[in-house]
């Protein structure tokens, strides 16, 4: 995104079904995927793409991380999935027209730039579904992600790009830990990232002051191009 830090994309979010919210999968399941070409933006190692491939005519996953795309290709081959293609591409650079999508999806990789590109490539009546960080994600760290969306921001950017919201809800879970050790163990995989952006020290301070929770909060949206 111009003038901002790199978008935060997370492939290991709180799992519901194959690591993906069952609500989100249910919303996508109401679309005619069997006759559709689906574009999975910020696919990572292909978690969502591989879940949707058996239901879709064709699915393309894009991600700028070469190692993740190679991993997605290996997983697809191991699963015998022939209708999934994985391409190294930056979700916020260029356009999506080369992938000729009927549906665009994104799972925990979201920005205004992605919404804009989805709005430009999708024909009227086509669906755009995504899961994004919600404003309360990791609130105990004392820092809101610049890429988190609250309901009003999500509705505004969708409306500006000619999308009508059909479904919008928040899935929020606050985990309570019995001890300092348990709270630290729950975020061990995030330490390097949080140290680099200042969250780690704020979370440690929160724990030292007696806090023992961690909130995960996601915005689940399906919209249709007007």
Topology of this structure?
Blueprint: H1 22-29, E1 37-41, H2 47-52, E2 58-63, H3 66-78, E3 84-88, E4 103-107, H4 112-121, E5 127-133, H5 151-160, E6 163-176, H6 180-185, H7 191-197, H8 199-208, E7 213-225
Parallel strand pairs: 1-2, 1-4, 2-3, 4-5
Antiparallel strand pairs: 5-7, 6-7
Spatial arrangement of strands, main beta sheet: 3-2-1-4-5-7-6
Low-confidence stretches: 1-8, 11-17
* Shape descriptor: globular
**Rg for CA atoms:** 18 Å
- Assign a percent range to the helix content: 25-40%
Instruction: Characterize the largest beta sheet: strand count, sense, and whether it forms a barrel.
Output: 7 strands, mixed
The percentage of residues in β strands lies in: 15-25%
Q: What is the N-to-C order of secondary-structure elements (H for helix, E for strand)?
A: HEHEHEEHEHEHHHE
Mean pLDDT: 92
Which structural class best describes the helix and strand composition?
Answer: alpha/beta
CATH architecture call: 3-Layer(aba) Sandwich
CATH class: Alpha Beta
How many helices? Answer: 8
Per CATH, the superfamily is Vaccinia Virus protein VP39
List the domain count as a whole number: 1
* DSSP E strands, number: 7
Spatial separation of the terminal alpha carbons = 25 Å
- CATH topology, what is it called? Rossmann fold
């Amino acid at each position: 995104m111009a003038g901002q830090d790199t978008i935060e994309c997370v492939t290991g979010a709180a799992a519901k079904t194959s690591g993906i919210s069952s609500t989100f999968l249910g919303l996508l399941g109401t679309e005619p995927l069997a006759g559709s070409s689906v574009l999975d933006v910020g696919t990572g190692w292909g978690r969502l793409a591989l879940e949707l491939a058996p239901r879709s005519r064709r699915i393309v996953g894009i991600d700028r991380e070469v190692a993740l795309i190679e991993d997605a290709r290996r997983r697809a081959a191991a699963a015998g999935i022939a209708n999934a293609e994985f391409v190294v591409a930056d979700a916020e650079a260029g356009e999506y027209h080369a992938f000729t999508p009927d549906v665009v999806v994104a799972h925990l990789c979201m920005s205004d730039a992605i919404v804009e590109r989805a709005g430009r490539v999708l024909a009227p009546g086509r669906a755009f579904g995504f899961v994004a960080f919600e404003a309360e994600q990791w609130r105990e760290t004392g820092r809101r992600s610049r890429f988190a969306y609250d309901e009003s921001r999500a509705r505004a950017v969708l409306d500006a790009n000619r999308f009508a919201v059909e479904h919008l809800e928040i899935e929020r879970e606050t985990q309570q830990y019995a001890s300092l050790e348990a709270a630290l163990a729950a975020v061990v995989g995030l330490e390097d990232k949080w140290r680099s952006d200042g969250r780690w020290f704020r979370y440690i301070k929160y724990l030292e002051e007696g806090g023992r929770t961690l909130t995960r909060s996601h915005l689940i949206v399906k919209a249709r191009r007007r």
